[in-house]
Design goal:
The protein is α/β, with parallel strands linked by helices and 194 residues long. The protein has one domain (3-192): Spore Coat Polysaccharide Biosynthesis Protein SpsA, Chain A. Helix content is 31%, strand content 24%. It contains seven helices and nine strands. The strands form two sheets. The chain has a seven-stranded mixed β-sheet, with helices on both faces. Strands 2-3 form a two-stranded antiparallel ribbon. The longest helix has 13 residues, at 108-120. The protein is globular. 42% of the residues are buried.
Length: 194
Amino acid sequence: MRVGAIILAAGSGSRAGVTKQLLELRGKPLLQHAIDNVAASRVDTGVVVLGHDAEAVDAAIDPGDFTVVVNEGYASGQASSLIAGVWALPEWCDAAIVVLGDQPGVDAAVIDQVIDAATRSESKIVIATWQGVRGNPVLFQASLFPEIAQLTGDTGARALFQRYPDEIEAVEFGRPMPLDVDTLEDYRAVVDGG
């Protein structure tokens, strides 16, 4: 299975009041941690989707071999960034794994476990669960890309979860979900936690 990663990093960070992709964590921008985690995993290619303050974020990160795309319509919601990422993946991808740019605790081992489960599974969707709670990353088989391209709004791919409840395989991690940095309090918690 050839897997492309989509790193979602287009949001405005309105709840944090800053461009959170640029917040410094252990000497580098928050977004760089997600990029580095994905690069260390067994993905075959990757796309970093920027939006808000894209020029400054692009200048601050090192995407390595990954493609950077700018979603000009990011304000319409996460679905538009997911679509931009899917369109930017090479046609040879068998699946896409979606990683949040503000979740530095999702490391390469987590990403690889989801990919490994997908290679053994017949399911269209493989999702990480944390102590029984669905979270990220989420892997979608390429057969779903046309439906992803029709998504709208800020709910991401939840519509697909509702449409294919019997096509979802969970990978349970048995520990608390890694923190999303949505607010400055979240950021301080991530900094304090390591």
